[in-house]
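Section 3.1: Structural characterization of target chains.
Under the original work plan, the team committed to producing a structural model for every single-chain target entering the pipeline before any wet-lab resources were allocated. The record below documents one such target. The sequence was received from the expression subgroup and is listed exactly as submitted; it comprises 278 residues.
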Amino acid sequence: MSSMSGRNPGAVLDLESLSKVRVNTQAVLKRAQHIQGLKLPKKQWQAAWLLKAVSCIDLTTLAGDDTPSNVHRLCMKAIQPVRYDLLKKLDMHDKGLTTAAVCVYPSRVADASKSLKAANSGLPVASVATGFPAGQTPLETRLQEVRTAVRDGAAEIDIVINRTLALTGQWEGSDFIKTSTGKEAVNATYPVTIVMARAIRDYYLRTGHKVGFKPAGGIRTAQESLVWLNLIKEELGDDWLCPHLFRLGASSLLADIERQIYHYVTGQYAAYHELPMA
């Protein structure tokens, strides 16, 4: 699990009540099964939900061979995530649709910031930091990595928490919580998300502070994005269905969503080369 930076000093965490939390695993699994079985929107409603999903994507590249050129392509795709002619058919070409952010390694933040600035885009750059994905580097190294990313233009930081602190119950609050780094064998799952969403809801009811949620890792299809939106709507309500409080961490999801939009508009499925990804 990791979190996005920006601790809210006004929200006080009741550690005593936290220690009393118990999870009914069977009930959670049953709830996850129920949500996965919910009817998903069709036709124009599905197209609208898919565009909503696009607006919540942290379009991500976290590869060892990232270069300024592929980060530039990623940024251009984030600014124009769905082909202009398709958006025009939906009367969405002038609505300013973009992804929520681009997400890169700290060493590529300057490249992303430069590309977005050159395109006159205010799209935020998010960066993983603090020894991603293991989080096992020394504290001063992790802090310096955050400082460097912010200096180079990052507006958001995905922080890998020290899992030792979590496992020993040493909790503190944050603006966002995230299922996983996306680099694990098992990443975002529906049962784990339900538990995290209930914690977010309980925390909001106790403190009035809304914490955001970001699933990451293995989210690849348009159909899956609809289930994620449904889950958040069911568990947290419409207030959370916005980039300010909900993000989808993904690299290949956008390509499939654009294919589904293409199919809705034209009645045919596009080949992947017709909708090139960044």
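Residues 74 and 278 are 5 Å apart (CA to CA).
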